[in-house]
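User: My instructor asked us to take a sequence, write out its structure as tokens, and then describe one feature of it. I'm not sure where to start. Here is the sequence I was given:
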Amino acid sequence: MVGIPFVLVNLGAQAWAELAVALATAAIFGVVVAFGWGTVGAAMTAGTLPAERPGLYANSLISRAYLFLFAVTPMALTVLVLSSVDRIAAVVAAIAYLLPYVGASWYFVGESKPWRLFVFDVLPQGLGTIAGVVATFFIPEVWVYVTCQLVFNLLAVIGSAVVIFRSRALRGQRPSFALAPAMRRLGNQWHGVIAAGTGTINSNVPVIAVTLIAAPLLPVYVLADKLFRYAVAGFGPVLQVIQGWIPEAGPSQKDKRVQKVASLAPILGLAGGIALTCLTPWAAGMLSAGRLSVGWNLSVPFGLIFCGVVVAQIIGLACLIPIGKGAELAKSTAIGALLNVVLMIVLGLTMGAVGIAWAVAAGELLVAAYQVVVVRKYFAGIGTEGHPERVGIQH
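Assistant: Let's start with the prediction itself. The structure tokens for your sequence are:
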């Protein structure tokens, strides 16, 4: 966030906006690279015996490394088509932004070691941004900024892998590097892929849509979108605490804790949405050094988007997965993404960038509402078949 005014001043608003387009493109292809581990990997790690966790990560890393290689070329071609200021720098940026999807953030969350997450994942990526900002003071070129990010993001992936592979638990485990086993391991990840993919459509396709439909407003939309993403990132630690708190007391307390969290989710979402709505116009002017202005016409829909995302993350990731409703998680995000795409076409062509923001808001709120209904039905006793632990509680 601190780097936004410096990048805007040194590189220009349009170049900065195109970096956001590269980021959005990388996020879309990142769904293929992460292949669900970013969505369900933390829960998988937490549910795996400590001695088996490094092996789980090693197999995941090998599979995602192949997917990264498969995704780079089509991603680069897409960015070349969408960019106009500095196409080569945009491609480098997209590769830099794709690298974290090969990282280990979900693994560190799952093993409940936040210091590892910070030191080996968050910190290197943050240093890459800082290094890029400093470098542009001396060489004000986009390629300088994105190259710094590329180097540090690569260091984050390597450093995370090294610290995990040094674990004694990995000794004696020999993960296969062959392509066929690496691809077969993807078979159990489809629920996570669908959830991540549709969620990514809701959050990243709009930036590309604005590029194609309302390019002059791209910097303003991107700034509002950035503030929203920072808010989501700020909520991340809260979500991680919730995800760890639910299984902490054991299976006997799981349903009670899920119910408590589910009842709290709408309150947190509403409070966060109001806060983001009110703070966005002020923060946009401050972070852009007065060069860009975000009005209420964008801050209101982005506040609603944040409200929906908070509720959906809490209910979907922290509640539906523990009660065995992963299929409903995928279904809800697919329905929301479909509505989002339809409304983006209709509202985008009629209202421009503001219409696209409202389309995203409608999609996210629908996802959240659907997931709330699923949890309520579960605790009302509907669909208890196949959940013997629920029957046992009732009787």
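For the description part of your assignment, you could build on this observation: The longest helix spans residues 254-287. Try explaining in your own words what that tells you about the chain.
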